[in-house]
Design brief:
Number of domains: 1
Structural class: alpha+beta
Shape: globular
Radius of gyration: 21 Å
Length: about 280
């Protein structure tokens, strides 16, 4: 019985590592390639480590008793360069306007922190730059859908007593794109292999700061249409942040790709084999 408990504990630990943010058991991909117009590897730009991202998000909190809360978040982002090197995609690749939407949810504790429990990131390539306009949803969900990532359990960041991300505090998000979730012609590994053929993990690191007075387009597009908010500013009244209830933030940071560590999968395999052997011996 002790042997079975030990084996089960090993398996549970490995499965837990995978479930609570698979990106933790992954290596950041360096010197990969990205083609903002989907033109293939030959004309892609080499990415040393990350795509620069910036945008805005609306966070809606719901107290769940005691000091706990749940939340939903809707955000819009764009990326015009990589590695902070000012190689502008729309300039070097006309029509390569890269945008994204985030719909995520999770839970946290006031005066402590929060983590994500699910959601989606959709990345678009729009031949026409419509970001920050009233087209679509803030112009962030138009053009060609080139990637869909599922938000994994984990990540998050620190919050104050109202559930607001601590000023300029880092927020981390882990996500995964399964095979077929990336469009061919855009993402390539260091050897030039198209990443659309298999799964890939992603990290997003952003610094969040409260925006006290979002402009009219941000309110109508991100808060009202994107997040589906129905309070002041969406139909009647004037929008204003309500810390502890809902807030609007700006984000800027990095989007990185990652590959799973094969050792984590091997450990899981060993644990399962050990458990199978135990069951066979017990049956005899």
């Amino acid at each position: 019985m002790k042997s079975m408990k030990k084996t089960l504990a090993t398996i549970a630990a490995v499965v837990s590592l995978g479930a609570v943010g698979s990106a933790n058991a992954a290596s950041v991909l360096n010197n990969w390639y990205f083609n903002p117009i989907g033109g293939g590897y030959a004309t892609a730009q080499q990415i040393n480590e990350f795509l620069d991202i910036n945008g805005n998000a609306f966070i809606d909190l719901t107290p769940t008793g005691g000091t706990g809360f749940s939340f939903t978040e809707f955000g819009v982002f764009n990326s015009v360069q990589a590695d902070g090197n000012a190689q502008l995609f729309p300039v070097n690749y006309p029509g390569g306007n890269i945008t994204a939407t985030l719909s995520a949810f999770g839970a946290g504790t006031f005066s402590s922190g929060f983590q994500f429990t699910g959601g989606t990131i959709d990345i678009y390539q729009n031949p026409v730059n419509q970001y920050a306009t009233a087209a679509g949803i803030y112009g962030a969900n138009l053009g060609n859908l080139i990637g869909s990532f599922q938000v994994l359990v984990g990540g998050g960041g620190a919050v104050d007593a109202s559930g607001t991300p601590i000023a300029n505090g880092q927020i981390t998000l882990f996500a995964e794109a399964l095979a077929g979730s990336l469009a061919p012609g855009y993402f390539f590994d260091p050897l030039g292999n198209d990443l659309s053929a298999g799964g890939i993990l992603a990290f997003a690191f952003t610094n969040a700061n409260t925006v006290g007075s979002p402009n009219a387009t941000m309110i109508s597009e991100i808060i009202c249409e994107g997040a589906g908010f129905t309070g002041n500013g969406c139909g009647a009244g004037t929008y204003a942040n309500a810390p502890g209830d809902y807030i609007f933030v700006s984000n800027n940071g990095q989007f990185k790709l990652a590959v799973p560590e094969p050792g984590s999968l091997a450990l899981l395999g060993i644990g399962l084999l050990g458990f199978a052997g135990f069951r066979r011996n017990r049956a005899k």
